[in-house]
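For practice. Any example?
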Amino acid sequence: MATNLALDPELLDRVVAVSGESTKKAAVTLALKEFIARREQKRTVELFGKLEWDETYDYKSERSRS
């Protein structure tokens, strides 16, 4: 899908330089993927301390040795 964006040229040059990608498109694609991954990780980290654990649960008893 073709999309026209007005990007800050200095920022774009930094993304290309830091990413090591050979094209602007590849650098922006990588930056977007990393942005998404970081946001998803942040959501996972926010769950720490919010989940309720059953202290009596014995995961080893659920194993099957058949």
User: Anything to note?
Assistant: The chain is about 55% helix and 0% strand. The chain has a mean pLDDT of 90. The radius of gyration is 22 Å.
